[in-house]
Write a structure and sequence with these properties.
51 strands, eight-stranded parallel beta sheet, single chain, alpha/beta, 15% helix, Leucine-rich repeat, LRR (right-handed beta-alpha superhelix), 839 residues, 26-stranded mixed beta sheet, 13 helices, 21% strand
Length: 839
């Protein structure tokens, strides 16, 4: 809800709370009983300290200052029940003078229909059921609560359409249905609620266009239709809503131009967000010149071409947030940084990523404006050395800084910790940075540091893993550089670390035992280094690891049964090492690979106690914890949250022996399983038919024998399958998904037969339809004929026979011999004549 609506409600609280109250009248016995029943239904989580006497003394209960009746029930989310609450709504109807019922974040479940009982409350003006777990359709009976002025149903699971019954709420000033799963078109009758001040329908599945009826809402201050499936053009009539202060249309499918008339009368607009649509055309930023109240503008990720330099103009606004990412910025003026930014003294957050901006890092944005805390210049054409300006004695207020995917070169300044003393989120990946990592970075309070894909050398400075930054670092990515030495300095302490990526360097030795001091670590990627030794025992018992990638090192030893303690593990990649021994049969103890419901850690880790998901959305920094995983013969990169949807095991290219444990068939949530290039024996477990979610299954280059279980055709998600170069035999199952696999999936198994191989299977009940040889030929003759010796001998004999037959005829028959010689002479003469023409 907007600040205006919240202020109205807050003022209401203050007036009711602080005016002299008539304490002489207590609530009725019936109302006391109702509150006690509500408390019992929540297992005592609300009204916990209430003595059960005066209702007005109960937490969250506010009484009328004149007659002492309960007028407001506001149950805070801090006191929400631990389990889903299904309140008896009739208990609230006992408070016949109730004006506000606020149950936001109370973990309420079920459908909305029971709340139809509230129509008995003639004074009810505010109903807030946001941030719960309610579902089903929004029942039209709510439209019969005649005096309702504020209705909040956001952040639930409601579906269906908006019923026209809501249009009967003539007193409505605020309607918030955001963050549900509602669909259909937005009923135009909402445009007839004359007093509507705030309309929030964002993060649903609404479609259709913006009806012109909304242009008649003269009192409308907030219109938020963001993140739906709406389309069409942005109608210029929205410019007639003179009181409009917030317009959010982002994340839809709107196309066409942004109409300049939209802002001709909009001197009061504060926030404009039309990002992530399909808007196009050339837009001169000068159309906003007279919108003096403008504070926030986001035009990013459209097909616009934005010009800020021509025609010349002077802004009357002072922005705090500007997002022009992916806007073809100043294409006709050399892709320069907008000059008007120098006039924006309150600007705190600016994103100019993906705009082909050239030249060095704009130092004026770092040092001349002390308000800027977030600067994002990702994927431009920035060149030169880092901070190639006279900034030796200056300091910046930057907190979040992103210059990734540019061409910045040279070393980082040793005093970078002094230049950027407030830096917390830093992404300088994918440039051409050289030299050592400055030790002064360790003096900062870094939360995110990404220096991956550069040419940095030397070792990781101890200050980064032991001093100030070490205690605050959540995400550290130094992968794909030329770093060397030990994996981490001795005595490293990083208690907040959740993601550590050091792949593609030259680290030696063992996995640093100091990682055990990072109890929140979720992702560990040290692949493609020169690490050796056994996989440490403490790694198997780490409490929160979700993704472990040790690929392409020199690890040896066995897979210990302790690995089965890693209950939250989703991705395990230990391929291209020297691991030997068998696969532990207890692997089915790793519960995340078995159950569709997430474990207490794992995917939910990021929302319950981790910070990575929050940092992705709040820092504004384009960083992503990422992992590479081999699927479908290609190495895929999983970034950020999509990694949480990936589950896989890759133990390929090791020295594993023994049979494949049948327990692996219980890992029903696995999407990729790669056991190739080992020495595994035995048969393919029939239990693999239970791998219902597997998309890629590679068992090639082993010593497996027996038949391919026909039950595997039940794997309907399977798109890549290989058992090549084993000792398998029998008929290939060729149904459902298996009918899509070609010969390469079965190469190197001479005893396999049936489609797609050219070898047909012959059984007593099914004679070979193509080759009608007798059984003796099939058992003996074909084996001789199919040998390479027989083939080459046949070719040699045929050549000799043809040669002597041909020349024998020429020797015996004079006429044929003379005709042959004349023909040769003619061809020679013709050839010489042709050559003479070109010489």
């Amino acid at each position: 809800m907007s600040s205006f609506a919240n202020n109205v409600i807050l003022l209401w609280f203050i007036v009711i709370t602080f005016l002299p109250c008539s304490w002489g009248q207590e609530c009725s016995i019936e109302q006391k009983r109702a509150l006690l029943e509500i408390r019992n239904s929540t297992n005592g989580s609300v009204f916990a300290d209430w003595d059960g006497r005066d209702c007005c003394n109960a937490p969250g209960i506010y009484c009328d200052s004149i007659d002492g009746g309960v007028s407001i029930i506001d149950l805070q989310s801090d006191n929400a029940p631990s389990s889903t609450w299904y309140p008896n709504v009739t208990l609230f109807t006992i408070f016949d003078e109730l004006e506000q019922l606020r149950l936001n974040g109370m973990n309420i479940g079920g459908e909305l229909k029971p709340f139809c009982e509230l129509k008995r409350l003639k004074s009810l003006a505010v109903l807030d059921l946001g941030n719960n777990s309610m579902e089903g359709t929004i029942h039209p009976c709510l439209g019969r609560i005649e005096g309702l002025s504020v209705l909040v149903l956001s952040h639930n699971r409601f579906n269906g359409t908006i019923d026209k019954a809501f249009c009967e709420l003539k007193q409505l000033i605020a309607l918030d249905l955001g963050n549900n799963s509602m669909e259909g078109t937005i009923h135009p009758c909402l445009g007839r609620i004359e007093g509507l001040f705030e309309l929030v329908l964002s993060h649903n599945h609404f479609n259709g266009t913006i009806d012109k009826a909304f242009c008649e809402l003269k009192q409308l201050s907030v219109l938020d239709l963001g993140n739906n499936l709406m389309e069409g053009t942005i109608h210029p009539c929205l410019g007639r809503i003179e009181n409009l202060r917030q317009l959010v249309l982002s994340g839809n499918r709107f196309h066409g131009n942004i109409p300049p008339l939209l802002f001709s009368n909009q001197s009061e607009i504060v926030l404009l967000d039309v990002s992530s649509n399909q808007l196009e055309g050339v837009l001169s930023f000068s159309i906003f010149a007279n919108v003096s109240s403008l504070v926030y503008i986001d035009l990013s990720n459209n097909y616009l071409e934005i010009e800020t330099e021509s025609p010349s103009w002077v802004p009357t606004f002072q922005l705090t947030r500007l997002n022009l990412a992916n806007c073809n910025l100043n294409k006709r003026n050399g892709h320069v940084v907008p000059s008007f930014i120098s006039t924006q003294l309150d600007l705190g957050w600016i994103d100019l990523s993906h705009n082909s901006i050239e030249g060095g890092i704009p130092c004026q944005l770092l040092f001349n404006n002390t308000s800027i805390q977030g600067l994002f210049l990702r994927s431009n054409i920035l060149t030169g050395s880092f901070l190639d300006c006279n900034a030796k004695n200056q300091t910046s207020s930057i907190v979040s800084f992103d210059i990734s995917d540019n061409q910045v070169r040279g070393p980082l300044p040793e005093n970078i910790g002094h230049l950027l003393p407030l830096l917390e989120h830093c992404n300088m990946s994918s440039n051409a940075l050289e030299g050592n990592i400055p030790w002064t970075l360790g003096n900062l309070s870094l939360v995110i540091l990404d220096l991956s894909n550069n040419m940095l050398t030397g070792t990781i400075p101890q200050s980064l893993t032991k001093n100030g930054s070490a205690h605050s670092l959540v995400y550290l990515n130094l992968s794909n550089n030329k770093l060397q030495g030990k994996m981490l300095p001795r005595d490293s302490i990083m208690p907040s670390l959740e993601c550590l990526q050091l792949s593609g360097n030259r680290f030696e030795g063992v996995i640093s035992p100091t990682i055990s001091n990072s109890p929140s670590l979720v992702i560990l990627d040290v692949s493609h280094n020169y690490l050796s030794g056994n996989i440490p025992r403490w790694l198997y018992s780490h409490p929160s690891l979700v993704a472990v990638r040790l690929k392409g090192n020199r690890f040896e030893g066995h897979l210990l049964r302790r690995m089965c303690q890693m209950r939250s593990l989703q991705v395990l990649d230990i391929s291209f090492n020297h691991i030997s021994g068998g696969i532990p049969s207890c692997i089915n103890n790793i519960t995340f690979w078995k159950k569709s419901s997430p474990s207490p850690t794992g995917s939910n880790y990021f929302t319950q106690k981790g910070r990575l998901r929050y940092l992705i959305s709040s820092s504004g920094l384009y960083f992503a914890f990422q992992s590479y995983f081999l699927i479908k013969y290609m190495e895929y990169t999983f970034n950020g949250i999509p990694l949480l949807l990936m589950t896989g095991i890759d133990v390929s290219s090791n020295q594993l022996t023994g049979s494949i444990p049948s327990e692996m068939g219980e890992l029903s949530q696995i999407k990729s399983l790669n056991l190739s290039n080992n020495f595994l024996t035995g048969s393919i477990p029939i239990s693999f038919r239970n791998l219902k979610n597997v998309e890629s299954l590679d068992l090639s280059h082993n010593k497996l024998s027996g038949k391919i279980p026909s039950e595997l055709v039940q794997l309907t998600s399977l798109s890549v399958f290989s058992v090549a170069y084993n000792n398998l035999s029998g008929r290939i199952p060729f149904e459902q998904q298996f009918s899509t696999f070609n010969m390469k999936s079965y190469d190197g198994n001479p005893d396999l037969c049936g489609g797609p191989l050219p070898r047909n299977c012959s059984t007593p009940n099914q004679p070979d339809p193509t080759h009608k040889r007798d059984q003796k030929d099939q058992k003996e003759g074909t084996r001789v004929i199919d040998t390479p010796f027989f083939f080459y001998a046949f070719v040699a004999v045929s050549y000799a026979f043809g040669f002597w037959v041909f020349f024998g005829i020429l020797i015996i028959n004079k006429n044929w011999r003379m005709n042959y010689f004349r023909a040769v002479d003619r061809y020679v003469e013709s050839f010489l004549e042709m050559l003479s023409k070109y010489w």
